[in-house]
Sequence to fold (334 residues):
Amino acid sequence: MLPDISSVHVRVPATSANLGSGFDTVGLALDYHDELEFTLNANPDDVAAHIEIHGEGEDTLPRDETHLVVSTFRKACETFGLGRFGFTMVAHNRIPQARGMGSSAEAIVAGIAAAAGFAHRGELNRAAVFDLAAHIEGHPDNVAPAVYGGLTVSYDFEAPEGVGSVGIAGGEPLRRGFHAVNYPVDPDVEAFVFVPDFELSTEKAREALPRQIAHRDAVYNVSRVGLMPAAMNPSSLGADGPAQANALLFAATQDKLHQPYRAPLMPPSTALIAKLRRAGYAAAVSGAGPCVLVLHHGQAADDIAALVAPELASGHWRMLHLPINMTGVEIERR
Fold:
């Protein structure tokens, strides 16, 4: 089967994973996007991928079938029952590469969503996009918010061996594999991302992690990540909730599982986080780093910018002041 439409436009948000305590499970979508246009080649005999890249990665990303968006798109087309066809992909990238803002998850979600757009009419099947993206990425913490938007908590359900799903009393069977849950985010929450002028590969960041952790450190993180949904939506706590909002965010972003071990890989990021937290701001490494994320209820842009003015003036950092994205990936068929 070949597509019966000529082009699909895809818009995917940046993401920040972990948020301090929620290692490999918690993610947040940010209102900062890559946009890609996929257009069928005019000549049906031309089954090649032609690639244009503008913005982030335009000097470093491949322009052939090894490009992560393209290879993912090809795989997804097979999954969705499409035959091989040629296309031109024009990418307008804003998400920094290898900085901890979900660029690889964005690429995977973009490729799958574009393939789904060509294969099916109607609303985008986000569950199908998430399922395939999580299996390709190998962990769902960044792909979940890229697909669904907002605050997400993801998990890999392990059914007994040989069992595909488990019957749940009074509900639908729970299947094996990756799942994600969306939590409400108060519109008052703002994100600040500090982007450095150096990169850090996720592989190196993972190599820095220990094979075992102390029981007390696991308990510490469990207690903090349990605060995250309330910290992001304090009205759920009643009338007194908003007054506790930033204190909850500060506690919820504490961590002993990954940031201490990765700190030597990114001293400037570690120093910036320490400075921000000493001033009472909920700062953490964004994803595997080296970007730094700050979450705050209410307006604080001027105060935060003044606090980090020396770092910004150095030319080694830039600050992005971003709303939370609540829609996730979007497609438009043309």
Remarks:
- The longest strand covers residues 22-40.
- The chain has a mean pLDDT of 95.
